[in-house]
Amino acid sequence: MRERWFGATGRKVPQIALEGTLDLEGALVLDGVSDRAAIGEAHARGIPVVIRASTAEEVRDALSLGAVACALVRDESLLALDLPQLTYG
């Protein structure tokens, strides 16, 4: 399981996690990547950024942004995504 830094907390989290399994206190949790300004601002301030995703493409899009700590999913099958394959074919 690949992990990412959870903002400036000094903690690492799985890059893809089931909703409800992580402590998200203090994180900016968004329903997509469209608000790039908020994502960039939170990242610059050391605030963890978490994106909810419901498809493989949404997970890929969220994790393509270095500022995003984690993609939250409800579908357990998305935990097993092969991101390099999905990204590079």
Explain this structure:
The mean pLDDT is 95. The radius of gyration is 12 Å and the shape is globular. The relative contact order is 0.24. It is 26% helix and 25% strand. With 89 residues, it is an alpha/beta fold. The longest helix has 9 residues, at 36-44. It has one domain. The strands form two sheets. It has a four-stranded parallel β-sheet. Helix 1 (36-44) links the parallel strand 4 and strand 5.
Task: Summarize it.
With 89 residues, this protein is of the alpha/beta class.
Radius of gyration: 12 Å
Q: What gross morphology would you assign?
A: globular
| Share of β-strand residues | 15-25%
Distance between the termini: 20 Å
- The helix/strand series, from N terminus to C terminus, equals EEEEHEHEH
Number of DSSP strand runs: 6
Report the uncertain regions.
none
Number of helices: 3
Could you give the order of strands across the largest sheet? Answer: 3-6-5-4
* Proportion of helical residues: 25-40%
Total of domains: 1
Structural class estimated from helices and strands: alpha/beta
Q: What does the average pLDDT come to?
A: 95
Largest sheet: 4 strands, parallel
Blueprint of the fold:
Blueprint: E1 3-5, E2 12-14, E3 16-18, E4 28-30, H1 36-44, E5 49-52, H2 56-63, E6 68-73, H3 83-88
Parallel strand pairs: 3-6, 4-5, 5-6
Antiparallel strand pairs: 1-2
